[in-house]
Specification:
There is one protein chain. By secondary structure, the protein is of the alpha+beta class. It has one domain (14-122, 141-299): Acyl-CoA thioesterase, double hotdog domain (Porin, Beta Barrel). It contains six helices and twelve strands. Strands 1-2-4-5-6-3-9-12-11-10-8-7 form a twelve-stranded antiparallel beta sheet. α2 (49-61) runs antiparallel to α5. It starts with 13 loop residues before the first helix and ends in an 11-residue tail after the last strand.
Length: 310
Amino acid sequence: MTDSSTQTPPALTAEQVLADLITVLDLETLEVNLFRGVSRDLGGRSVFGGQVIGQAMVAASRTVEGRTPHSLHAYFLLPGDMAAPIVYEVDRIRDGGSFSARRVQAIQHGRPILSMIASFQVPEDGLTHQAPMPEVPPPELLKNTNVLIPEWLAAAGEVHPRIRASLTRHPAVEFRPVYPWNPLAPDVTQPRQAIWFRIGQQLPDDPMLHRCLLAYASDFNLIGTALRPHGKSWYSPDMQVASLDHALWFHRDARVDDWLLYSMDSPSAQSARGMARGLIYDRSGRLIASVAQEGLMRHTETKHAGAVKA
């Protein structure tokens, strides 16, 4: 990806951004077990990992009937090329009495950029418990990032055009951080954060669509949590940062067009890698999903903020 040019494309409305995201997730069927998707530029140097995970979930779900996804485990193998389509190849590993497993390879230029296994289950009742939701202010009392970002940019002074374009791009997901933290001038703080998020427009009543969009949104902010105690962020020019893997467990159905709380922490960083975990709750306190991710956090003198080659 090249730096932003002086020609700024017209800003999309929130409705257009959401419609475009749903279009991106609606893969083209090429053949049995074979699908193709396109990408959108979110301001990084490669395809956003959450997009590839979301599309891989869509591909896997189109080979399963009567069962809902309960977990996925994915490895990011290569940076994705935003200018090229992504082909998703699904391997129907197993269809048992209660569970189905699917392996998905996301392929560009003849090489896999992501490898994922997802598991699906026939709905059934069972024993129930959950961790309680943290006590935090409701989203109505917090600032949206589209309010915070101009403040962060003003405080930072001169900002690289690519980073400015990335921060000011209208996302399909709305975020309201409980503990705001300027990624352009990061302080040293605790390796934890909590963020309310939602899709800002009403969605169809399709549980699979909501789960695929939850998978998409779950890739935001995790590795940033592991960078916080070091006073670094994705935009630090002396850091090379990339997601290495991603695991997600779906516990309960929820709507992603209503506010969800993403409570994250990082128990460890070592060997140029940082580990982050997250719990996602709905407004009533129900635990919706659990997430874990490891990311590359390599200190380098090369002045390319957010580089993604691992």
